[in-house]
Amino acid sequence: MNNFEYYNPVRVLFGAGELKRIGEEAKKLGKNICLVSYKELNFLQPLMDKIERLLKEEGLNVFTFYEAEPNPEITTIALGADYCRTVQADVVIGVGGGSAMDAAKAIAAGVYYEGDLWNMVFSRHDHIDAVPPVKSLPTMMIPTLPATGSEMNNCAVVSNAALKEKSYIWSTCLYPKTSIIDPELTLTLPPYQTACAAADTISHVLEIYLNGEEDSDLQHYFQEGVMRTVIDNIGKVLKDPSDISARSHLQWAATCAINGWASPGDAWTPIHQVGLYLLRVTKYSMELRWLY
Fold first, then answer.
1. Exposed, middle or buried: residue 75 (CB in 10 Å: 0-12, 13-18, 19+)?
2. Domains of the chain
3. Distance between CA atoms of 132 and 1, rounded to whole angstroms?
4. pLDDT per position as a tens digit, 159-215
5. Could you report how far apart the first and last alpha carbons of the chain are, in Å?
6. 1-26 pLDDT, tens per residue?
7. How many CA atoms lie within 13 A of 46 on its CB side?
8. What does the alpha-carbon distance between residue 218 and residue 208 come to, in Å, rounded to a whole number?
9. Torsion angle of alpha carbons 92, 95, 98, 100, nearest 10°?
């Protein structure tokens, strides 16, 4: 087993109905709250209205930056950081899927970052010229999609349309202070998005499961457990979208898939002579088959 160093300071409040605690938890972090979510809220609008109400009931000042797009643009991150400085936000809360949460993390770090925010990014995975942020506003994450696991890790994926690049920011300061993981927020997900999210969860552990490292017993059992949990519950949810128990298992599996628990001690080596999983996502189902 390889040597490793592990650190994850995120406080997690998990369970159906836990969203009700967002006001009291945010109040512990600051007074001026910047809510970050998507440019097109659509069906998230009632949720955002509820969150704003819960925050204001605790006497908090609420400012909204609903401008995040899929694979958030670095120009959007810069605008969000400027907005937080203007309203003197002292807490940033990301609500939505991975793009909204990653935008919130990047914005919170961008508030203190000097110079071009793209310099925070490990561009092209070559680690050249990247200067990761070292300070961030405290953040909270409220995931509405069980997929990316951004609610419990120190990574944020961003894009740069001008350079035609998509990469990531990786820094200890990006860890959220608190994440409220409420499976009830996933009950309205359509079948296709539910299936895609399950595939995303599996992909996160599959890429380290098939890494050529044999001496990782506990990690491999953990990875298998995450994948098995998804396989066991995705069918239940697609059959009965209101199955909160199955939704909860999918939500927690997504978080655990990429919060570091599955990877300590693993070497990220190329895959050689291993089987591959075939994931086939259709509108109403997800099929997982082992190919030799």
1. middle
2. 11-185 (3.40.50.1970), 188-291 (1.20.1090.10)
3. 29
4. 999 999 999 999 999 999 999 999 999 999 999 999 999 999 999 999 888 877 778
5. 26
6. 778 888 999 999 999 999 999 999 99
7. 3
8. 13
9. -60
